[in-house]
Design goal:
Number of helices: 20
CATH topology of the largest domain: Rossmann fold
Radius of gyration: 29 Å
Structural class: alpha+beta
Number of strands: 25
Largest sheet: 6 strands, antiparallel
CATH architecture of the largest domain: 3-Layer(aba) Sandwich
C-alpha cells in the first residue's frame, strides 16, 4: 500500500560560522517541533538538513586565516552538528554539500538541464583583479550602490535596499583581495531562464496557498519578485572552490552556490538511505506521488525555496519520467533579534548556541524560543524574558505540578497510581479537558502556529495545577481517601498527557517525566486518555527545573552587554582597522576600594581613580580575587565604554584581565609609578 510520506527540510546552515539563537528560531526549532509531532502521530517522515559548504564567504575566511576552505568547513560543520545535537534537533541525517554524492547530484542536474537545451551561455563583464590575477566573485568586490548610494554594496546586490544590478553599474568598486580598483573583463557563464517559469510558478504558489494556506509573508515576498519579473540568472561562477562545472573548457568554473545548495536536501536523502542499505528508497520520498514536502526556512531564504528550487524541479520534470515533488508549504519565519537589536557577527552582538548551552539547559531555551518564534513579525530574545519563562512557567507551573503530585502519591499511596472512584463534576470537567487537548494542539501545529501550540500546552499545565489545588488532596486524604485517590489519578493522567504534548517542544524534560511515571509515550491520538492503569508502579520523582538565579543571568549578561566593544578572539572574527581600535580609550586607573556586589560571588564593585575623577566599575573577578587584595592596584580600564547595569549596579567601564586555562582571571597591572589617567596605546 502506498502510504503517505513526509519530507521535512530545514535550511542548510552556512559552514562559515557558529549558529546562534536567531538561526534556531528562524528555521530549526519550528521544523523539529513539527517533525516530532508527526512522528508521534505515527507518520512516515524523514527530517533532512546539513551544512552548506561552498561559496565565496568560506574562501574569504580561508584566505584571512591562510588555510584551505576544507579546514573552515570541517571546523564549522562539526561545531554546528554538535550544537544541534545538544539543542535536541532530531535530524535523520545532517549531511554536507562537500560530499561526493552531493557533487554527483548537482552535476546530474546541471547536465540534465544542459542537455535539454535549457541554459544559455553568455559573455558577461565581471570584475577582474589584475594584481591578484583572478576574477572576483560578488563578495570580493565592494562599492557604492547605484540605487541608494550606500557604501559597502556588493558587485551585484545591495544588502541595504535589496537592489539587483549589473556589476558595471556599481560605483567606486574596490577589490577586497588587493584593495585596488578592479577592471571589468569579459568571461562566460551559463544562465537559467527563470522568466520562462514565472507563469507556472505563480500558478503553483496560488494552488498551494488555496490548498495549504501559505503564510502571508511568503506570499507577499513572492509577489514582489513576480511583480518585478523573473530574469535569467547565472548558475556558474569563476571560482576554484565548489562543484566543478562538468563540461570541457570550463576550468576554474563552479556551480553557483544558490543553484547547488538546495540540491543538498536530495543528496542528503540519498546518503541517508545508502547508510540504511536501501540505495533506491530515496525515490519513494522525492519522487513519490503520495509525499508531502515542507521546507522550513528563515525569510532571507524565501526566494530560493519558494521560487528557484521549485523552478529547478519543474525543469527536471519537463525532461524526465521520474518526476520530483514540489514543496507543499514553505513556512518561513521572520527574524529573531537579541536584546532589541539584530544578531551581528561583525559586532559580536548575540550569543551562539554552544555558548548558551554551556550555561543553561536546552529545554529552557527551546521553550523560550518557542514562545518567541517570529512567525508573523520580527521578535526579540531577552535575558529577563528567558529567566521569567524558566522560573515562572517551567519551574513554578509545570515542574511544581509534577513534583507535588508525584511526591504526594509516593508518600501516601506507595508510589502507585490510585484507583479511580466516583467522579465529581470537577473530575469530569478535567477529564474532558484532557481528552480534548491533543486535537487542539494538533490543529495548531498543522497550521504552523507553533507559538500558540506551546502556549496552550502550558495553559493545560496551569489548569492541571488549579485542578490539584481545588481538589485539595491533603484534606480529602483524611476525609475521603477514595476521592483523594481519584483526584490524584486524574492528576497523574494530566502529567502523562503533558509529557506527551510537550515532547515536541521540550523533549529532554518529557523523557524525564516518562521515566518518573515509569511509562513510554503513546501515539498522539491516544494522548489525553487514562493511559496509566490503576496500581501501576511509578518511578521516583525528581526536580525538573532548578531556578535560574539573578546571578546566573548577570554573569552571562556581563559577557554580552558590551559585546560591540569587544575584540573577538575566534579565528572567524573580522579584522579591524587602526581607526576602529583608536575608538577604544584605554586608561590607567588606581583601585581605591572594592566590595562584593550583593547576592553575587563573581561581581566586585570597584571605585577607581582615573586621574580626572572617580568612577564605579563592576568587574567579574570575584572568584579570582577577594575585595581586600585589590585596593592600591593600578589596572587598565576601558574608559569610554557605554555604562551598563549589572545586578542593579552601574558599571562605568571595564577592567582588562587575562584568563588562564583553568579559568582564573588576572587583572592587567602596571607599575605604581605610572600616573592615573595615562593613555594606553
Amino acid at each position: 500500500m502506498n502510504t503517505e510520506k513526509i519530507i521535512v527540510t530545514a535550511a542548510l546552515p552556512y559552514a562559515n560560522g557558529a549558529i546562534h539563537l536567531g538561526h534556531l528560531a528562524g528555521a530549526y526549532l519550528p521544523a523539529d517541533i513539527y517533525v516530532r509531532f508527526q512522528r508521534l502521530r505515527g507518520k512516515d517522515i524523514i527530517f533532512i538538513c546539513g551544512s552548506d559548504e561552498h561559496g565565496v564567504p568560506i574562501t574569504i575566511t580561508a584566505d584571512k586565516e591562510k588555510v584551505s576552505p576544507q579546514v573552515i568547513i570541517d571546523r564549522y560543520h562539526e561545531i554546528n552538528k554538535i550544537s544541534f545535537e545538544k539543542f535536541g534537533m532530531s535530524f535523520d541525517i545532517y549531511g554536507r554539500t562537500s560530499s561526493k554524492v552531493h557533487h554527483e547530484t548537482a552535476k546530474e542536474f546541471f547536465l540534465n538541464f544542459y542537455n535539454q537545451g535549457l541554459f544559455s551561455e553568455k559573455k558577461t563583464m565581471q570584475f577582474y583583479d589584475n594584481k591578484a590575477n583572478m576574477f572576483l566573485p560578488d563578495r570580493y568586490v565592494e562599492g557604492t550602490c547605484p540605487n541608494c548610494n550606500t557604501d559597502g554594496a556588493r558587485s551585484d546586490e545591495c544588502e541595504n535596499c535589496g537592489a539587483l544590478y549589473n556589476p558595471s553599474e556599481l560605483k567606486n568598486p574596490i577589490s577586497k583581495i588587493s584593495g585596488e580598483k578592479p577592471e571589468l573583463k569579459e568571461t562566460s557563464h551559463w544562465f537559467i531562464p527563470l522568466n520562462k517559469f514565472q507563469d507556472r510558478l505563480q500558478e503553483y504558489i496560488n494552488d498551494r496557498n488555496l490548498r495549504f494556506n501559505w503564510k502571508e509573508n511568503v506570499l507577499q515576498y513572492c509577489k514582489g519578485w513576480f511583480h518585478d519579473g523573473l530574469q535569467e540568472r547565472a548558475i556558474t561562477r569563476d571560482l576554484d572552490w565548489g562543484v566543478k562545472v562538468p563540461l570541457e573548457n570550463a576550468d576554474h568554473k563552479v556551480l553557483y552556490v544558490w543553484f547547488e545548495a538546495v540540491l543538498g536536501y536530495i543528496s542528503a536523502t540519498k546518503e541517508l538511505f545508502s547508510h540504511r542499505g536501501q540505495d533506491s528508497s530515496w525515490r519513494e520520498y522525492w519522487q513519490g506521488e503520495n509525499t508531502r514536502y515542507i521546507a522550513f526556512i528563515g525569510k532571507d531564504n524565501i526566494v530560493f525555496h519558494a521560487i528557484i528550487f521549485p523552478a529547478m524541479l519543474m525543469a527536471w520534470n519537463d525532461g524526465n519520467k521520474d518526476k520530483y515533488i514540489l514543496p507543499e508549504n514553505v513556512p518561513a519565519n521572520e527574524f529573531l533579534n537579541f536584546e532589541g537589536r539584530k544578531f551581528s557577527k561583525s559586532r559580536n552582538w548575540g550569543i551562539d548556541v554552544l555558548e548558551f548551552l554551556n550555561h543553561f539547559e536546552a529545554d529552557s531555551l527551546r521553550y523560550t524560543l518557542a514562545l518567541n518564534l517570529p512567525e508573523l513579525r520580527d521578535s526579540d530574545f531577552s535575558w529577563n524574558d528567558f529567566q521569567a519563562r524558566h522560573n515562572n512557567e517551567l519551574a513554578d507551573i509545570l515542574g511544581n505540578f509534577v513534583n507535588r503530585t508525584m511526591t504526594f502519591v509516593h508518600k501516601h499511596f506507595e508510589g502507585k497510581v490510585p484507583q479511580l472512584g466516583k467522579l465529581s463534576e470537577r473530575d469530569v470537567e478535567m477529564i474532558d479537558i484532557l481528552n480534548g487537548y491533543p486535537v487542539k494542539i494538533a490543529t495548531l501545529i498543522e497550521k504552523y502556529k507553533l507559538k500558540d501550540a506551546t502556549l496552550e500546552v502550558m495553559n493545560l499545565a496551569r489548569l492541571s495545577n488549579k485542578y490539584f489545588n481545588d481538589s485539595e488532596p491533603w484534606k480529602t486524604l483524611k476525609s475521603d481517601k477514595e476521592q483523594c485517590g481519584t483526584s490524584l489519578n486524574i492528576s497523574l493522567q494530566a502529567i502523562y498527557t503533558l509529557a506527551g504534548l510537550f515532547l515536541p517542544v521540550i523533549p529532554f524534560t518529557s523523557q524525564k517525566i516518562f521515566r518518573m511515571v515509569n511509562s513510554r509515550p503513546v501515539e498522539w491520538e491516544n494522548m489525553g486518555k487514562s493511559n496509566l492503569v490503576e496500581g501501576h508502579q511509578l518511578g521516583e520523582p525528581v526536580i525538573l527545573f532548578k531556578k535560574v538565579e539573578n546571578e546566573m543571568i548577570e554573569e552571562i549578561r556581563l559577557k554580552t552587554a558590551n559585546a560591540e566593544s569587544d575584540v573577538k578572539k575566534e579565528p572567524e572574527s573580522e579584522l579591524i582597522t587602526i581607526d576602529d581600535f583608536s575608538k577604544v580609550q584605554l586608561r590607567i586607573a588606581e583601585i581605591l576600594s572594592a566590595e562584593r556586589v550583593k547576592k553575587s560571588d563573581k561581581l566586585i564593585k570597584l571605585i577607581v581613580d582615573t586621574g580626572s575623577g572617580k568612577r564605579q566599575v563592576i568587574a567579574g573577578i570575584g572568584k579570582s580575587y577577594s575585595p581586600e587584595e585589590l585596593p592600591g592596584k593600578k589596572v587598565v580600564i576601558v574608559a569610554n565604554l557605554k555604562p551598563a547595569k549589572l545586578m542593579g549596579e552601574e558599571s562605568q567601564g571595564m577592567v582588562l584581565a587575562v584568563e588562564n586555562e583553568q579559568g582564573i582571571l588576572n587583572v592587567v597591572e602596571v607599575d605604581s609609578s605610572i600616573s592615573n589617567g595615562t593613555k594606553v596605546k
